[in-house]
Design goal:
Keywords (chains A, B): ATP-binding, Cytoplasm, Kinase, Nucleotide-binding, Transferase
Strand content of chain A: 15-25%
Number of strands of chain A: 9
Shape of chain A: globular
Distance between the termini of chain A: 16 Å
Helix content of chain A: 40-55%
Largest sheet of chain A: 5 strands, parallel
Main location (chains A, B): cytoplasm
Structural class of chain A: alpha/beta
Number of helices of chain A: 8
Order of helices and strands of chain A: EHEEEHEEHEHEHHEHH
CATH superfamily of one domain in chain A: P-loop containing nucleotide triphosphate hydrolases
Strand order of the largest sheet of chain A: 2-7-1-8-9
Oligomer: homodimer
Family (chains A, B): Belongs to the guanylate kinase family.
Radius of gyration of chain A: 19 Å
Largest interface: A-B, 34 and 34 residues
CATH topology of one domain in chain A: Rossmann fold
Function (chains A, B): Essential for recycling GMP and indirectly, cGMP.
Pfam family, one (chains A, B): Guanylate_kin
CATH architecture of one domain in chain A: 3-Layer(aba) Sandwich
Chain lengths: 206, 206
C-alpha cells in the first residue's frame, strides 16, 4: 500500500466573495477533509466544546504560543485573538488526512509564510461590480465602508500572486466542483508520490 | 470575457497499462477535448479521411517535416512513419481548445523535449504483477517477449520523473475521473490565468 501524508488546502479571497458558502457546500458533499480548528482567547459559549469548535486559551497562553511559532496565522478581533494552531494541522496531515482552512487574505498570506507547502486557492468574484452588489446586499455596511471594502478588494486581488489556483465563484456548485478537482489532482502530482511509487516498484521486482 | 489558450495533455505509460481503454472511456464522456491527429506515411485505407483519421504524407514529405522540426514526436513502425504534427496541435490550442494525446513513453519523452509546456500524465499499473498478467492475457506475446516487456516497463516507470501527474489505473472509471480532475484543475492554475485576471480587474475599475 501507498502511504501518503495529507495536504493542507487554504481557501481564501476578498471579503464578500462567498468563501463561507463555498466551504459549507464543499463540506455538505462529505469530502475526505478535516476542517482546521481555530484557537481563540474568547470565552467558550454554551454548547461549544474545546477541541471541536475551538481550542480555547487564555491571552497569556496564546501570546506564548505565538512567541514559539505555534500559530500558522493569527489576528486580533474585538480584543480577542483567533488563529490556526500549527500542531493540530501537522498532526492531522501526518495521520494521512487533508486539512481545509477557509480564511481572509491577510491570514492566508501569513499561512503562506509559515507553511509554504500548503495549496493556496484564491476565490475570485465574477466581477468587481458583483462583489460590490454582494457587499451592499449583506446590508451590514455603510456606503463608505463598501467603498473601502472595494479598495481593499482591489489590493487583495493583486495578492493573487501568492496563490496556486484561482477559482471564479460565479456559481457555487461549479466553484465547489473545481475546488474538489484541485484537491483530487494535487494528490496525483508526480513529485508528491514519486518516492512511494519507486518503493512499490522495488518491492514488486524482488 | 477571459480568453484562454488550450492546453496539451499527454497520457502515457508502460505497455499493457490500459492507455487506450482510459482514452476511449474519457472520450465517451464527451469532454471538451480535441484528439491529436497523427501524421503517417502508411497508405490511406478504405473509409479513412485525410485530416480526420490521419494526415497522410509521402515518406519524402514526412522526412522533410521532421527536418524542419514540424513533428512533436515520431517513430517508424513496419517501414512507415507515424508522428504528431506540431502545426495541428498549435493551431488547435490557439483556437482555445485542449488537445489530448495518448502515446507510448518514448513518444511522450520526445513531446516533452519539443513541447515542455504540455501536461504529462503517467498511467501507472496497479502492480507490476498485474501488468504481467495483462500482457499475458492479451495472448499476443511469447513468454520471452513478456519478460522483455516487464524489463522495459521497469525502465519506463523510472521515466516517471518527466511527468507532472501519476494516475493508477486500478479501475478505469476512477482513472478517467482523475484525468478529468487534472484537466479541470490545470485550467485553474494561477500562473496560467493571472494575466487575464489582472486585465479583467483593470477593465472593471475604470
Amino acid at each position: 500500500m501507498i502511504e501518503e501524508k495529507g495536504i493542507l488546502f487554504i481557501l481564501s479571497g476578498p471579503s464578500g466573495v462567498g468563501k463561507g458558502t463555498v466551504r459549507k457546500e464543499l463540506f455538505n458533499r462529505k469530502p475526505d477533509l478535516k476542517y482546521s480548528i481555530s484557537m481563540t482567547t474568547r470565552n467558550r459559549r454554551t454548547g461549544e466544546t474545546d477541541g471541536i469548535d475551538y481550542f480555547y486559551k487564555s491571552k497569556e497562553e496564546f501570546e506564548e504560543l505565538v512567541e514559539q511559532g505555534q500559530l500558522l496565522e493569527y489576528a486580533k478581533y474585538v480584543n480577542n485573538y483567533y488563529g490556526t494552531p500549527r500542531a493540530y494541522v501537522e498532526e492531522t496531515l501526518a495521520a494521512g488526512h487533508d486539512v481545509f482552512l477557509e480564511i481572509e487574505v491577510q491570514g492566508a498570506l501569513q499561512v503562506k509564510e509559515n507553511f509554504p507547502e500548503g495549496v493556496f486557492i484564491f476565490l475570485f468574484p465574477p466581477s468587481l461590480v458583483e462583489l460590490k452588489n454582494r457587499i451592499v446586499n449583506r446590508g451590514t455596511e455603510t456606503t463608505e465602508l463598501v467603498l473601502n471594502r472595494l479598495k481593499e478588494a482591489r489590493k487583495e486581488i493583486e495578492m493573487m500572486d501568492a496563490y496556486d489556483y484561482v477559482v471564479v465563484n460565479d456559481q457555487v456548485e461549479l466553484a465547489v466542483s473545481k475546488v474538489q478537482s484541485i484537491i483530487q489532482s494535487e494528490h496525483l502530482k508526480r513529485e508528491r508520490i514519486e518516492k512511494q511509487y519507486k518503493k512499490l516498484l522495488e518491492d514488486e521486482m524482488e
